[in-house]
Amino acid sequence: MAESENNSGEQLQTNEALALAAQDEIASVMQKAMGNMSNNSTDQTPKNTSPTEELSTEYVQPMQDPYNKAITYLENHNILQLFQQLTASIVYTKPEQPLDFMMQEVEKMKKEKAQEQKS
């Protein structure tokens, strides 16, 4: 029992030593990186401004999430409802030529929509 406690204590000390070494290494790398950033930023400062002046930045609009953009398009054009209707029709009628059937259904929908717009 005493031997397992001794091994556990040694393991804990080893883990703590590794953690401290990792923290020191991270701190060292961060200091180097921050030093490089400050050196680079002073090199990029225009000659007619003081180093304490902030450089002006131009605002750039964030890109719209492509997934949400696609969903919005599908909703605006009722594409999801169109496919639900086509799928339900195909499952109900089980045509021999499903592609031809879908084409005919879409043509019917186009004619119905054109008639609605005339009214």
Structure notes:
The longest helix has 42 residues, at 2-43. Helix content is 75%, strand content 0%. The chain folds into 2 domains: 1-42; 66-118, cAMP-dependent Protein Kinase, Chain A (Up-down Bundle), CATH 1.20.890. The protein starts with a helix and ends with a helix. With 119 residues, it is mainly alpha-helical. The protein contains 4 helices and no strands. The chain is elongated and about 80 Å long. The model has no long low-confidence stretch (mean pLDDT 79). It has helices at residues 2-43, 66-76, 79-93, 98-118.
Mean pLDDT: 79
How do the helices and strands follow one another from N- to C-terminus? HHHH
Low-confidence stretches: none
Helix content: over 70%
Distance between the termini: 92 Å
Count of structural domains: 2
Largest sheet: none
Strand content: under 5%
Q: Please name the CATH topology of the largest domain.
A: cAMP-dependent Protein Kinase, Chain A
Structural class, judged by helices and strands?
A: mainly alpha
Number of strands: 0
- The tally of helices reads 4
CATH class of the largest domain: Mainly Alpha
What is the global morphology?
A: elongated
Do you know the CATH architecture of the largest domain? Up-down Bundle
Gyration radius, to the nearest Å? 34 Å
